[in-house]
Amino acid sequence: xxxxxxxxxxxxxxxxxxxAVNDVNLKVRRGTIHALIGPNGAGKTxxxxxxxxxxxPTAGQIFFNGVEITHEAPADIARxxxxxxxxxxxxxxxxxxxxxxxIGLQRGTGESFRFWRSDKILNRLNGRALELLAEVDLAEFAxxxxxxxxxxxxxxxxxxxxxxxxxxxMLLDEPxxxxxxxxxxxVTQLIxxxxxxRTILMVEHNMNVVSQIADxxxxxxxxxVLAEGPYQEVSRNPAVMEAYMGTTSGELQGAH
Length: 256
Description:
This protein has helices at residues 44-51, 74-80, 97-106, 119-122, 126-135, 151-164, 181-194, 207-213, 231-234, 238-245, and strands at residues 4-15, 18-24, 27-29, 33-37, 59-64, 67-68, 82-84, 169-173, 199-203, 216-221, 224-229.
């Protein structure tokens, strides 16, 4: 099995002449946290949309575990084990925290859309749901209606529901966006914790988060790969500092 779980070759996305992603070659090593960063409009979320087939690429190829998936449907890509979270928290607000995770677990039973299943049958999933909630430090909130959770806890719940679908590759889109310092710190440590035995590709603006947990960083600018490597190397790259801050001196720190 290839050391790279995900690979793109010459990936391009054009919108009526505007090139949002331009010849991107990405290699994500298995078992690592790989961060995709860049200024606003750099093409990060478009790249995510191409990887999960919410958008078709204009040109290029996408490989997962060495198999080309460029032309597969989003549902088929999810079945392969590529599971994505979004910038906006995507949970069911009127269900309990436990019920949200249980819906994710139903995918593995072949009963994904049978919401009318009896409580007796669905309750069989409660043990695993509670384990996942404990993994993201939400066990004490299991019976709480989701709408009542603070924002940072909702993002933690979203990670739990993503884990419930047993992903081989987790794609996290701006997991700390809109959070206060305390929630950012909690979710950062949570991502590090759940990365054990998994591969994570994340889009993230907060450089403090990236510097703490990312093994490899790919910097996009105007749709192109500007730099790639560990944080210490990328943060001192003059081209990266120019793209982020309009300066070629010093070191990139704490940029959002």
